[in-house]
Amino acid sequence: MSVRSLPLLFLNLGGEMLYILDQRLRAQNIPADKARKDEWTEVDRKRVMNDIIATMFNKKFLEELFKPQELYSKKALRTIYDRLAHASIMRLNQASMDKLYDLMTMAFKYQVLLCPRPKDVLLVTFNHLDAIKDFIRDSPTIMNQVDETFRQVIEVYGCLSAGEFHLIRQTLLIFFQDMHIRVSIFLKDKVQNSNGRFVLPISGPVPWGTEVPGLIRLFNNKGEEVKKVEFKHGGHYVRAQSEGSFDLYGDRVLKLGTNMYSISRPVETHVSGASKNSALNTKERTAPNPLAKEELNFLARLMGGMEINKTSGPEPGFRLNLFTTDEEEEHAALTRPEELSYQVINIQAAQDQQRNEELTRIMGEFEVHDQPQQSTSKGDDLLAMMDEL
Amino acid sequence: MYRREQPVPTQACPAALYNNLCVLSLPAPRLTQFALVHGLNVQLLSATSDGLPVSQRQLHAKEGAGLSFPLITQAYWCVLPFRVLLVLTSQRGIQMYESDGSVMVYWHALDSGDAPPAQALFARGIAASGHYIFVGTWSGRVLVFDVPAKGPNIVLSEELDEHRVPITDIAAEPAQGQDCVADVVTADDSGLLCVWKSGPEFKLLTRISGFGSPCPSVRLWQGTVAAGYGDGQIRVFEASSGALHVQINAHARGVSALDLAPEAGKLLSGAEDSFVHIWKLSRNPDSGCIEVEHCHAECVTDTQVCGARFCDPRGSSFAVTGYDLPEILRYSCV
């Protein structure tokens, strides 16, 4: 509903993506002198991070993003991140890309849900932006781009009212509805239950500007307080100590949006199987989607602003695996429940033609390539299809 | 005081919207109907007093120019003297159905005329008083529809133009009558409350300014305005003067729903802090001032409550919905 939620969604999901990629790249890191031609080094890692961040903060791209518009579907957004993740020499298989997107979305869902005030989603965004600035601290040009974006976020959102932030929050929560993927790191930290729902603490500091519950005050007609009564409200709350900073630099106070991954905490997801709501999810995902054209237009405009450095010459693409082994990755690809598939307007759909009438009808509007393409040119084919619209 | 009963399973989880539950009790057969907004559709369910689901139906927002899948913001049963209409508000406009959702009897498209570019357009806030249905809009304008005893000849008769930011909720005095001080109260995103009196034209009685937070939910009862705010406060005012009589530090997160049981003066509040509280409103016989006492606290573990309603006018039972919760929770007095 809110036409200002897309930039926040994009920047925060992008931030989470960078945390995960950085962690995985470090985990697969090999010292330069010991590395074979096909193994990751520190130099490679920095290059990948720089390339992706530069693409994410491309001026033309962000211009499109910041225009007031409705939030697009999870499918449309996934296409952008697919492209973004391939903005450098790194390559991800379908299964790893799915896992990456699952982790990103569940992390930001958690952060939005647990924000003390709706306005605090800005602090979460600033935490992500602060961390991104740290990733590219050696590259002044890209740092400029990020700083510019930071200023734009402050300008656009700094003066919104509490009511507008409530609407942004509600819009983001509608986007994340029906997503209950279990994330190992969340389960271990006991912030997520085994049914996929997040734990909501009933103790700790109240949001800045909120009173600790438990008091009833009675006034007379002259406005004088005549009685104070305490009541047992059931939680164990205390006053908030301080408010986070909404400036370009400062202590954000809020921990949501900071990097929760490290070498010792590998990224894992359980992909939750058939849930009670899976029937409805499937219906929505494969229902005739007239929005597809609108979304494709948006994607075309947005990705037109993305300057992807095409890898040419002798450099091969380096494949990053989000799983511990290649076998695990293959297994994940084979066992992913259908209702959690993100595929829709992609080459993959051509293979499902016999099984899915609706997708066939939509695909009939485009020219379909018979052979599935290699992942390196997936994004190009989508753009090519869009050119024909 | 209250114990949890068998929940009613739903096919989809409710959206994190304000006032996201409506309850209609059907006397014969003894069934309770529930309406909750999933986002793209509204779930209508009916269940027995034991919580066994009997039937269900889904309604969608009427499509219009632009967005193909408009979001629904609220569903509410308007109980009028001669009929009950189910009203849906969405990003496109206002739909009115027969109470079981079987037939749409009226459609009103939202006017996007003078909207600034970054403005979200939607209708939100529904109430019924006498033969009128009130619906709020993104601009702050409240539309007043005149509803005949039967048939589709519903007419937009008036527009109340006092608010300047999106309406959040509207409430009507449950006890209708000539001796009513106030009939309707409207609330908005800035926390402003406007109290109105019906007549040949609607007259603004009082304005109660906001406190820096939206007022997502408001109720009116016997000349008393009870309002829940986005910072967890509940405030109770004298409707005719706007005087603040009670201020409660009620919740640790924003209040998302309030409901009132008119025969007992009980107030129900649900908030994103996962708590539901029951309060008792009364008038001090000496001072005439409104007083509130706390009756009951219920923790809905790990759930951000988005809807809460009493299921009967005495407040002996209530129902709760929460974000990511695939069922309607029910509680009743022991």
TrEMBL record, chain A:
This is Protein OSCP1 isoform X3. PANTHER family: OXIDORED-NITRO DOMAIN-CONTAINING PROTEIN, PROTEIN OSCP1. GO terms for biological process: xenobiotic detoxification by transmembrane export across the plasma membrane. It comes from the Eukaryota. One of its GO terms (molecular function) is transmembrane transporter activity. It comes from Phascolarctos cinereus (Koala). One of its GO terms (cellular component) is basal plasma membrane.
Automatic annotation (TrEMBL), chain B:
SMART domains: WD40. Keywords: Cell membrane, Cytoplasm, Fertilization, Membrane, Repeat, Ubl conjugation, WD repeat. It holds the Pfam family WDR54. Its main location: membrane. One of its GO terms (cellular component) is motile cilium. Residues 1-334 form the WD repeat-containing protein 54 beta-propeller domain. Plays a role in the adhesion and fusion of the sperm-oocyte membrane through its interactions with IZUMO1 and IZUMO1R/JUNO. When cross-linked to form dimers and trimers, it has a regulatory effect on ERK signaling pathway activity in response to EGF stimulation. Colocalizes with the EGF receptor in WDR54-specific vesicle where it sustains the internalization and controls the degradation of the EGF receptor after EGF stimulation. This is WD repeat-containing protein 54. The gene is WDR54.
